[in-house]
Amino acid sequence: SAYGVFDTEDDKEPYAVLELAREEWNNRLIITQLLVKPEKRGQGIGRRLIELAVEIAEKEDYRLITLETQTCNIPAIEFYKKCGFKLAGTNLHFYSNDDISENEVMIEMAMLSPSILGCDYLELEKTAKILEDAGTNFLHLDVMDGQFVPNIQLS
After folding, report:
1. Model confidence pLDDT, tens digit, residues 9-31
2. What is the DSSP letter of 38?
3. Which residues contact 140 (CB under 8 A, 6 or more apart)?
4. For residues 61 and 6, what is the distance between their CA atoms, to the nearest angstrom?
5. CA dihedral over 78, 82, 83, 86, signed as positive or negative
6. Rounded distance between C-alpha atoms, residue 54 and residue 73, angstroms
7. What does residue 85 show for φ and ψ, rounded to 5 degrees?
8. pTM for the predicted model, two decimal places
């Protein structure tokens, strides 16, 4: 899915774009593109597009939102951290065999959505508060259908 932000209905090119990919096999929503033209930055547009991704992830019950950036893109890293993303992983050879020397190491950042499937439902409010205080952006509930996921729970 792709979302564009335009100044007017007649504009042919958006000044901001959010592109999302859904990985059903591991229940991830991936931000594959987030672009705000330089002259429009600093106005909250990027943050609003991230909020849209969070709304979609909550509605569609994804366990994780993830995105990729480079170690050399400090402004993007700082922006994503302010939006609630955390470092989730790196790949030293994602772009080429010279990523380290070129200071372009891929980093994956993620916004987790813990499942409340295994929590004590009598203490659900307390559990949600603990997760919120820990910086959790949203929660999800796994539905055990007995086909895609076996009916098993360890708590």
Report:
1. 888 899 999 999 999 998 899 99
2. G
3. 58, 61, 62, 63, 113, 114, 115, 116
4. 28
5. positive
6. 22
7. -80, 150
8. 0.74
